[in-house]
Design goal:
Layout: H1 3-53, H2 57-61, H3 73-82, H4 87-93
Length: 94
């Protein structure tokens, strides 16, 4: 190969590499935003359920995403687990 041909091949390879890097950056940004969107979209319902399980009945009935004014975590879970002599728990394992 002559020097001119080698220079052309190197320039083409450099151009392809730069194009791939640009595409890679765009793809990385797209993937990042997609993961963030999915985390928010699927995370909010779980957050809502967990936060409302800490609230008393009146606060939970407001259906807000606000932090509970008074935590009733243990009392709420104790009530659910002992309701109907643990029938809810037995239903899970049947």
């Amino acid at each position: 190969m002559s020097g001119k041909q080698e220079g052309g091949v190197i320039e083409q390879a450099t151009t392809r590499l730069e194009t791939k890097k640009k595409a890679s950056k765009k793809w990385f940004l797209f993937e990042t935003f997609a993961v963030l969107f999915a985390a928010i979209f699927f995370g909010i319902p779980f957050y809502f359920v967990i936060i409302n399980s800490f609230k008393n009945s009146a606060d939970a009935a407001k259906l807000s995403l606000a932090w509970p004014e008074a935590f009733q975590f243990f009392a709420n879970y104790k009530e659910v687990l002992t309701l109907n002599d643990g029938g809810r728990i037995e239903g899970i394992f049947e």
